[in-house]
Amino acid sequence: MTRSRPSSRPGPAARRPAKAPRSRLRRVVGNLLLLLFVGPALVILLYRIVPPPVTPLMLIRLVEGYGISKDWVPLSQISPNLQRAVIASEDAKFCRHRGFDWEAVDNAIERLQQKRHRVLGASTISMQTSKNLFLWPGRTFLRKGGEAYLTVWLEALLPKKRILELYLNEIEWGPGIYGAEAAAQTYFGVSAARLSPYQAALMAAVLPNPLKWHPDKPGDWTRARAYTIEARMQSVVLGKNAPCP
């Protein structure tokens, strides 16, 4: 009797396990992409009602040897003088744009193409808030792209009042000093609610380089910039219960 030899070709059941790892990998990658897409939105929604406990910049500065001095206060306890000062100095169109000042972006691109050494910043308060909450300092295209993406979510999910509140409470104002309250207490010995127009202008003047410039010991350039900011503050109109009318 002739016996049939078993076939050496693997059957369908034997081939299925080879596909399983690839399928699991696709699911993992898909879940990671989904998390990257909606994760920031979920955190931003949380920050709509909860103060951020810490930011990447704070952790970076901590590793560099600085402490963390911060004291969250609601926008109602931050002087309108300081609100006007930062809008006047950092983002005059804050109440009119949806996160991006396209005219400033065009000017920055033009200066970059002309290879000018000093390219004027085009970052709005919303963009700076996105960077402060989620990203690291630097001027790479990767970081700027992430900043732009996060700004879209920020403007879509938060009112202007909350964006300004986050900005004023989380921004770096000196070595280990974050937020308006800690800065006002450190530099002028007053609460953020009691800042005078000139004190507020000095605080806004040092924002481009808070590790080097100090509002309580202004140099000639800082003092001159503060005078300019104080003059511009008169044109910033605040709403009754929000920064924007």
Can you put this structure into words, describing what you see?
The protein is mainly α. The chain is 56% helix and 3% strand. It is built from 10 helices and 3 strands, in the order H-H-E-H-H-H-H-H-E-E-H-H-H. It has a 3-stranded mixed beta sheet with strand order 1-3-2, covered by helices on one side. Strand 2 (172-174) and strand 3 form a beta hairpin. Helix 5 (125-134) packs across helix 6 and helix 9 packs across helix 10. The chain starts with 11 loop residues before the first helix and ends in a 12-residue tail after the last helix. The model has no long low-confidence stretch (mean pLDDT 86). Peptidoglycan polymerase that catalyzes glycan chain elongation from lipid-linked precursors. GO terms for molecular function: pentosyltransferase activity; peptidoglycan glycosyltransferase activity. It is an enzyme of class 2 (transferase). The chain crosses the membrane at residues 28-50.
